[in-house]
Amino acid sequence: MRFDELDLEDEILDGLEDMNFHEMTPVQEQTIPVILEGRDIIGCAQTGTGKTAAYTLPLLNKLLLEGNPDNVVKSLIIVPTRELAQQIDQQFQGFSYYLPVSTTVVYGGGDGKGWDVQKRGMLMGSDVVIATPGRMIAHLQNSGVDLSHVEYLILDEADRMLDMGFSDDIMKIVSYMPRERQTILFSATLPPKIRELAKTILRNPVEVSIAISKPNEAIDQSAYICYESQKLGIIRELFAEPTDSKTIIFSSSKMKVKELAHTLKRMKLNVAAMHSDLEQAQREEVMLAFKNNKVNILVATDIVARGIDIEDIGLVINYDVPHDPEDYIHRIGRTARAAATGSAITFVCEEEQGKFHTIEKFIEREIRKADLPESVGEGPKYNPEAFSGRGKGRGGRSKGGDGRGHGRGRRDRLRDNRGRSSSSTAPAPSPSAAETAPAGGAVPAAADAANAEAKRRRRHRGGRRHRRGGNGAAAPAGEPNKASE
């Protein structure tokens, strides 16, 4: 179905024509008419299917027809991250090129000047406010922002917001709004907590689900079954020849992201790192450089796994297997956006095979196992059953060791070497020892000395716990307990 078949105003259709948007995606085709009718809606679709335009276009159409003569905040879009807020604002700027519609983006991490700009934009009456939950609440409590005239509330990436602990913040923001409004909720998944939220804030919503929790079919998925030490060699081979497209390399920890980016720079690759330790200005600089092709490889945590829509990302590499199958879907969804194609490669070392097999079962398909480059040598066999159920969801051994004394801590070994006499659970003495004990149950001098030493150690440990504010004693009133900070 084409956009010009919808009942959209000419100014919006002109903007779509300029942006070369003609055919609707399935989620747009099913949701835009419903939103134009004024119905509440729950939209569930995989990443990269055009969800932002699905609510942006009908909202702009309504704002254009109604105007904003009272200069109030008419619509609020709540999103989990500042990066997604910025991206949605950019989409609004494109779609509303021929419209007299104002937007204000509200997120933290900036300086005092940014706060003042956000405050002024909302107090002057912004048609569209795009905000992260924490910053919005800060303005509601300190800037006198009025949401009592909001007619349209949109929650984007709702499942992620709840995962990040924003449930109470969302309900607090909603409490500042009138009950009579249109509410639109978009989410990649529909777990029970999302349905519970929808029951609370939506009225008789229409539910639209498009290919829930399945990767885009346009993504060529593959995996290298390898040892940890082979991963850099694989990357060296992958980037031996220059490429015109962009690449995102995902890792689950910011420490590994920093180390990997540093290593790849030493390999003369054009790399930048993206993680939560960067200041807001640094994040914006990195993303702009990546978008403008000044950087063609972005090494990142899952901070960019959702909501980032950048053209020409031809390859996504999972340097390590994501902990959650849905994170895998969001990561690889950065490529093959809209009608494009792309590739996703996952490096699977031995202890991650169980997690990777869980992802295969979740997406209901077996991912192709690619042959390792000859330069890195042979890898391990793919035998995920040998690694399933080990550890706490990480595919590795538990902290208790493997039953042969391996993996046990230094304290455990020292405790074993102290001798049986210092343990309150020591076994009874052997018959020969009992027979040589003096009459009347007297203890030999050596054993007496050992017991005295054990008591001294227990007193010493108890005093240390007391000084540290541990379990041995409560911290003094008014002072924090360091163990719980």
What does the average pLDDT come to? 81
Query: Strand count, sense and closure of the main sheet?
Result: 7 strands, parallel
Strand order of the largest sheet: 3-4-2-5-6-1-7
Question: Terminal Cα separation, in Å?
Answer: 56 Å
Annotated CATH topology of the largest domain: Rossmann fold
The figure for the number of domains is 2
- Any idea what the radius of gyration is? 30 Å
Instruction: Assign the CATH class of the largest domain.
Output: Alpha Beta
Write the layout of secondary structure elements.
Elements: H1 10-18, H2 26-36, E1 41-45, H3 51-66, E2 75-78, H4 82-95, E3 103-106, H5 112-123, E4 128-131, H6 133-142, E5 152-155, H7 158-163, H8 167-174, E6 182-187, H9 192-201, E7 206-210, E8 219-225, H10 231-238, E9 246-250, H11 254-266, E10 271-274, H12 280-291, E11 297-300, E12 313-318, H13 325-332, E13 342-348, H14 353-363, E14 368-369, H15 410-417, H16 431-435, H17 445-468
Parallel strand pairs: 1-6, 1-7, 2-4, 2-5, 3-4, 5-6, 8-13, 8-14, 9-11, 9-12, 10-11, 12-13
Provide an overview of this structure.
This protein is α/β, with parallel strands linked by helices and 485 residues long. The chain folds into 2 domains: 3-210, P-loop containing nucleotide triphosphate hydrolases (Rossmann fold); 219-386, Rossmann fold (3-Layer(aba) Sandwich). It is 38% helix and 14% strand. It has helices spanning 10-18, 26-36, 51-66, 82-95, 112-123, 133-142, 158-163, 167-174, 192-201, 231-238, 254-266, 280-291, 325-332, 353-363, 410-417, 431-435, 445-468, and strands at residues 41-45, 75-78, 103-106, 128-131, 152-155, 182-187, 206-210, 219-225, 246-250, 271-274, 297-300, 313-318, 342-348, 368-369. β12 (313-318), α13 and β13 form a beta-alpha-beta unit. Mean pLDDT is 81; it is low at 390-450 and 457-485.
